[in-house]
Amino acid sequence: MSKQYKTILVPVDGSDASLKALDRAIELAKFYTSKLVIAHVIDVRSYSLAIAYREPLEEYAEDNAKKILADAEQKAKDAGITDVATLKKEGSPRSVIAKKIAPEVNADLIVMGATGYGMVERMFVGSVSESTVRHSTCDIMIVR
């Protein structure tokens, strides 16, 4: 028996890996006629390291998130996805994706890239995709 995915969540950060995951999520959303939720997490922890530049960094991160989400949403719509939503959160992507966003949108599948922009963090604490796999209660597809 094949599972029917009703809501597919795809986190994007603008990296090549997340854009490949977006492409796969679009394919799956078309196949299953699923709702597609495109999410971006602004990693606010980086602001604490640069107090003097906090405001410009926050503004840049906000503008960047809006652009990433708008571009991803347009790509999904251009591909024929009619039920698409975007979502922006702040926090650590390692915990926010699986513990907050996925339950909030009632995702039954998360499609994400194997690597993103968190390469330095991955060396010390593990990747966002690894953490999502450990903490998620729904199916996950990792796109290479």
Automatic annotation (TrEMBL):
Its main location: cytoplasm. It is found in: Cytoplasm. One of its GO terms (cellular component) is cytoplasm. Residues 5-144 form the UspA domain. InterPro entries: Rossmann-like_a/b/a_fold, Universal_stress_UspA, UspA. Keywords: Cytoplasm. The keyword Cytoplasm applies. Belongs to the universal stress protein A family. This is Universal stress protein. It comes from Ignatzschineria cameli. The lineage of its organism: Bacteria, Pseudomonadati, Pseudomonadota, Gammaproteobacteria, Cardiobacteriales.
